Amino acid sequence: MSLIDVIIPAYNEERSIANVIAAIPAALVQEVIVVNNNSSDRTAAVAQAAGATVLLEPNAGYGNACLKGIAYVTAKPATTRPDIIVFLDGDFSDYPEEMPLLLQPILEGRADMVIGSRALGRRESGAMLPQQIFGNWLATTLLRWFYGASFTDLGPFRAIRFSSLQQLGMRDRTYGWTVEMQAKAARKQIRYMEVPVSYRKRIGISKVSGTVKGTVLAGYKIILTIFRYL
User: I want to staple 23 with a disulfide (CB 3.0 to 4.6 A). Which of 96, 107, 165, 228 is the partner?
Assistant: First the structure.
């Protein structure tokens, strides 16, 4: 039986994080790891009360939080080190109960990385802002042109074999994390696929697409990352 850990980067998600943890299929998962990315609210306390392992990453950045979670699972004894890592956001925009859709292709040996595609799935009206939709289209188009990669989304809800994740040597510390994983997977010929996932309006305001500054910085970093790994 495969061991599965979940890593959830979280910055000021006290209103949503308990919902996310509760919706994760407990029977499938060995450990839920919430990486508290220097939140100023009660994210850590709420996540711990909901049953998650909570790590502190004081350096801001989505990638920093993911790298902290990876370092934690890497340090586990071999008997409890996960076979598969699932990443998802802490804002309850993803549907954690759809996790089996992402895991099935890996467990059946058909893929080593599975991206949950919001573009292919059922999306609540207004769940993705116009700048997010355009940014995803631009990034996935560039990935197709320069890497020959067939992606429709940079969705945060994703599953990957831990051994494949180690091969990627992930480095990005901020907004380029998701596209770095997909670009490197294409370059290293790691077997990947997408599955449709549902998506709803997040609880609270997005720290990235919810501000002009966040949108501009994220767009710049994503494009820079795509060209960096050519």
Answer: 96
- For the stretch 173-196, pLDDT in tens is 998 999 999 999 999 999 999 999
DSSP 123: B
Per-domain boundaries in the chain: 4-228
Over the stretch 88-133, which tens digit does the pLDDT of each residue have? 999 999 999 999 999 999 999 999 999 999 999 999 999 998 888 9
Tell me the pairing of strands 4-10 and 84-87.
parallel
Residue 25 to residues 5, 7, 11, 79, 157: CA-CA distances in angstroms? 11, 14, 23, 22, 14
- State which H helix or E strand residue 182 sits in: helix 177-187
Which residue's structure tokens are 């042109």?
145
Across the strands, what pairs with 192? 113
DSSP class of 28: G
